[in-house]
Amino acid sequence: MTLTEQMTELARQAKAAAHALTRLTTEQKNRCLRAMADAIEQRAAEVQRQNALDLEAGEKAGLSKAMLDRLRLTDARIAGMAKGLREVADLPDPVGRVLDERTRPNGLRLRKVATPIGVIVIIYESRPNVTADAAGLCFKSGNATILRGGKEAIHSNRVIAETLVSAANAAVPEFPDHAIQLVPVTDRAAIPALLALTDYVDLCMPRGGEGLIRAVTECSKVPVIKHYKGICSVYVDREADPEMAVKVSVNSKCQRPGVCNAIETLYVDRAVADRLLPELAEALWKEGVELRADAEAHQRLAPLANGRPLKPATEEDWNTEYLDLILNVRLVDGVGEAIEKINRHGSHHSDAIVTANEQTARRFLNEVDSAAVYWNASTRFTDGGEFGMGAEIGISTDKIGARGPMGLEELTSYKWVVTGTGQLR
Questions:
Q1: What dotted CATH number matches 3-226+398-419?
Q2: What are the start and end residues of each CATH 3.40.605.10 domain in the chain?
Q3: Quick one: DSSP state of residue 289?
Q4: Which residues, at least 6 apart from 10, have a Cβ–Cβ distance to it below 8 Å?
Q5: For the segment 320-339, what is each residue's pLDDT rounded down to a tens digit?
């Protein structure tokens, strides 16, 4: 078979599976998900053996620390996959929800009912735990999924996908074999071939770096839900509690720097720079963060650096997603300038303000044009699990359709169900 024929067969099988999924009950879907979770835990040693092969190859290929961190399946991350599957099983079934209901003067009864989208292609880099997260969410919402992980995680992804399918088959014989499929080849040409199949594929969701997402968006002939970058920020206001400002800033950057909801820029109100900037810098340096400061902030911090990493920020830095322990620092004249800079240089993902002034906070929350905005909390909470949605399938910064973390409800469409008694127009 040619590559195009392979992808067409994969998509055709997924379309048939999507139809078969409509016949599964909520109880059957939940039984499958819990069996998948049990199987992931039971095969943890095998999953880590396959993951070790990927890590070894990744190190030889020169993958960055951030990419290797995303690739690594620790005991905690494997437990997290199982926990996520069980959480999805415990969530209400999004399919069949009545979103709107009305009766017309002629007696027609109309209901707007949530339905599966159909066939969803997930394209992602490094993170093999996405295999379980995406498959579980798509399955619970009645969608067939085609998973296309990066070549750096091929061994990990294969064993996880095989584990999920075999567990579901054993738990529910009616489970359609092709409801969860992994693209079996690492050839990059598979992506445009798959995303040209508009008769079979309904939606694509890329997860990864900006290069991957732009490449997918440019080649796809099916709709794409995406976010290009995670240039997130914290603004420390003149009325911020100093201890809270330090804790929120450090957590937003350092808790896990290689992810899209970690901040890349810290804005500090010029009115409190003398008092708060040294304390913020000391806390960040203690965590090994390299600071890239604007001219004024650099001038204030240089006498304190004592050999610790401090550089002048370039214009390019304000638009850069580092995914590393590097942080821009900029002084601003109050919340108005902070909002203007965030909307200009940010990626509309996640941004936070630290302040005790509710009016200032409300202005920030209203005017910052991002998928998630925070008042006195870390940006690291932009996550489906943290939002109570179960494992997420991704984060969208689009404005049409889903925005922010995408869980079960965001993986459904709807149709109008009309009941009459013989009405004619």
A1: 3.40.605.10
A2: 3-226+398-419
A3: P
A4: 146, 181, 183, 194
A5: 999 999 999 999 999 999 99
